[in-house]
Structures are given as C-alpha cells and as structure tokens.
C-alpha cells in the first residue's frame, strides 16, 4: 500500500531506507574485502570476484539515498528559522568527529604503534580539507591517506552546495535543476575521459548524477507526483540490469571509455527506482520484511563507522590471519571485528556528539510563499 504520511514541522523516518542503507554498506564491504584478496583462496574464486565487483556500485546507492534524504530535509525546512545554521551544524556533528578522529588514528596513532614515521603535511592536507578526491584523480599529486575517503569528499561537497541551491531555486524550477545536474555529470565525465584522459570515478562533478537523481525523487514526492512514477520505476528495474550486463560483456577494449561514461547514470536510474518503490510501498508486508529486519537496519545504523573503519580492520585481521591460509576464519573475524569496532565507536564516541543535535532543532516556519509552504507540508523525510 502507498503511504501518504506528511509532517509539516518535523521530517519523519522511512524505515525501509535504513535497511537499504545496510545493503549498500554490505555491498561495499564485500567489494573491498575481495579487493584485498579475501576470496582468493575460495573455490570458484573467479565467480566470487565477479559477484563481489558488483559491490562497488554500493556507493551509487549511497549517493541516491543521500540525495533523496538530504533534499527532503532541505525542502521540508526551507522556511524555518536558522535553516542554514541548523543544517550545517547537525551535519557537522554527524560526520566531522568520526571523520577527523579516524584521520588522527590513521596519521598519528597507527604509525606510532608501528614505529613508523608520520607522513608530511604536504601529502596529507588534502584529507584535512575534504579534497582527497583531487589527488585520486590526478595521481601525480603528492598524497598519503585513506583511499576510500574519496566518497566522503564527494558527499561533503554535496552537503556544502545543495542547501544553497534548494534555498535559492524556486520549487517549480528545482526538478529542472536536478535534470541539469545529471546532464552536467555526464558531460563532465566525457571531458575527463576523452579530453583530460583521467579517470572519472573519483571527482565530484563526475559523480553528481546519482545524488541529483535522489534529489529528483525527493522533488517528485514533495509535489505529489511520486505515485504516478511507480510504473516507470518497475520498468527501469526490469530492463536496465539485463541491459547493463549486456553492455558489460560487449563494451570492452576500445569501448571501455563509453562504458565508463554511461554506467554511473545507469546504476543511478536503477537505484533511484528501487528507493522510489521502497518509499511508495513502505507499509507493504514484503517491503517491511525485506528492509526493516534487525540485521540490515543495524548495519544501516552503523554504516558510517563501517565505511570509515573497514579497510583498517580488514588489513589488521589479514595480518594476523592470512586469508589464503585461514579463509573462513579470516572472513568471520574481519567482519566481526569491524562490526564490533563500528558499534563501539557509535555508542562510546559518536553518540556524545550526536546528542548535541538537540540544540539545533528547527524552529517554527517563517512566513513563506504559498508554493514553498505547500511543498514543505507535502514532504516527509527519513
């Protein structure tokens, strides 16, 4: 059944999205575990490698979720007092303590424990200023830091710019802006791949289509058109995955750049369809059973910590239990340690900062135009 719950003052939760977030983080964990050689000693290793490679698209699913949830929050609170201050301060309390806490651990504590030297600031400053996806793209630049942090840079750039766009662009034009950003991302990838001859994987402008697609979904929900799109969502979910597999098989060699140009938008379309259907049918028994079970929602709850800590935990366990000698034990221990560390980080460290968010709750809406008020009232946010 479709859900039409609205809340004009405080955005409401959409329970299935927590489970979808859990799926996204597990996809990334499996991909990186295999990337570090975790499945090399298993029977049918080549098949496992191919299946695990799909997990890399978990970042696209995260981008869609971020675009959707953040845009819903911004639309719902656009007319509130302290719109900018509350958003940025609440985001800062959520992401900055763990982000910088891990950098301190990575750059100072771990080298000290290992008796190694500290990397020079000229190679690490990118990470301190959320610019680490720049040296990832142009590899000639001096860099030394956690490579997986590129994703957090893209997210931070989105958080920085998007509130201003939501505030300035009239609601009736915002959907067109989202489509423009999707097109700009494709053009950006074309320039990077065919003109600059560098990878389009890490750079912010090249990955904005998934974020904008999620934002477009939030616009559809806000203006009431989301139920009309469910047939399109079903067709995209049905047709795009087989087409993607065909392109993966066909686009090799000379066509690899074309595949790189198109695939991110394709994954964004599939994942925005999945999220859209989950939102539309959030009260259905099938969606609840699939996405609101405890393991997935727990993974979604600690997903930020899982992403930040996972490579460090995997490498530490692999040093103690080499996966080629102890494949099953290494797998169980790696994920067990990671989930334990991430949970402890949430309850013992991150929660202390998250508790401060109560000081930055949204006030009553300001007097705003009819169009924006209607948009805010018709929105519910996870």
Write structural notes for this entry.
There is one protein chain. The chain has one domain. It is built from 16 helices and no strands. It is mainly α and 382 residues long.
Write the layout of secondary structure elements.
Blueprint: H1 15-35, H2 45-53, H3 58-77, H4 83-114, H5 121-128, H6 133-137, H7 150-168, H8 171-195, H9 208-222, H10 230-250, H11 256-280, H12 285-291, H13 294-301, H14 303-320, H15 327-354, H16 370-377
Helix pairs in contact: 1-2, 1-3, 1-12, 1-13, 1-14, 3-7, 3-9, 3-11, 4-7, 4-14, 4-15, 8-9, 8-11, 9-11, 10-11, 14-15
Identify the overall geometry. globular
Total discrete domains: 1
- Helical content stands at over 70%
- Structural class of the secondary elements? mainly alpha
Number of helices: 16
Question: Whole-number average pLDDT?
Answer: 88
The proportion of strand residues reads under 5%
The major β-sheet equals:
none
Keywords:
mainly alpha, disordered N terminus, disordered C terminus
What's the gist of this structure?
By secondary structure, the protein is an all-alpha fold.
